[in-house]
Amino acid sequence: MTKPDPFRYFKTSREIIRLAVMLYVRFPLSLRNVEDLLHERGIDVSHEAVRYWWHRFGPLFAAEIRKRRIASMKSSRWRWHLDEVFVKINGERHYLWRAVDHEGEVLESFVTKTRDKKAALKFLKKAMRKHGQPEVVVTDRLRSYGAALKEIGAEHRQETGRWLNNRAENSHLPFRRRERAMLRFRRMRSLQKFAAVHASVYNHFNQERSLSTRPNFKLNRAAALAEWRGLCAK
């Protein structure tokens, strides 16, 4: 049984919808910035249409990207870097947890109101349910990590150090830039949704240009863009 076409009943072409969602999620742009960029290309849509497309298709695109990458990311079980940052929602502090592999791929994003043992345990179980158990877990000195790892019998896999967790801390930077462009979040659910979609899109287009030659980078970038244009195709 074939899946229904998610673009049916939409008058706008799927190419324009994919472009609008990519611009909004990938780059630190507001909805009106995306509207203006599309207008310069002769595409007349409102920022509310861009908002609707992002809410409707962003999770679909992210799910397809994750499905393809998880199947080919066996090496991600070697070393994980875990870290958390605070995010303000209506003036109240929440915490965004991230699991990043040794190559900088964001494996999981999870939002909680606290950063205690219960929250860390829920985050770890969710990440391990999708990606399996890693051989090494690098964390900072937050005690919640040690307590949660002990709970699941993996305390011997934990490593802590002053600069060992730079991989996870650097992974927060693109999200922070995106957060400033969106003028923060208003609901915990919205933060969780956007963090998950943003992580998948960032992984897809992150080519580590500093580690490859210019020709290889151009080939990888073209391949990533071609794959994006084929998401949710009939």
From TrEMBL:
Lineage: Bacteria, Pseudomonadati, Pseudomonadota, Alphaproteobacteria, Rhodobacterales
DDE domain segment(s): 78-207
Keyword DNA-binding: yes
Name used for this protein in its record: IS6 family transposase
The organism's place on the tree of life at top rank: Bacteria
Entry's Gene Ontology BP terms: DNA recombination; transposition
Biological source species: Sulfitobacter sabulilitoris
One matching Pfam family: DDE_Tnp_IS240
Molecular function GO labels: DNA binding
Function of the protein: Involved in the transposition of the insertion sequence.
InterPro entries named among the record's database cross-references: DDE_dom, IS_Transposase, RNaseH-like_sf, RNaseH_sf, Transpos_IS6
Secretion signal, residue range per the UniProt entry: none
Keywords noted in UniProt: DNA recombination, DNA-binding, Transposition
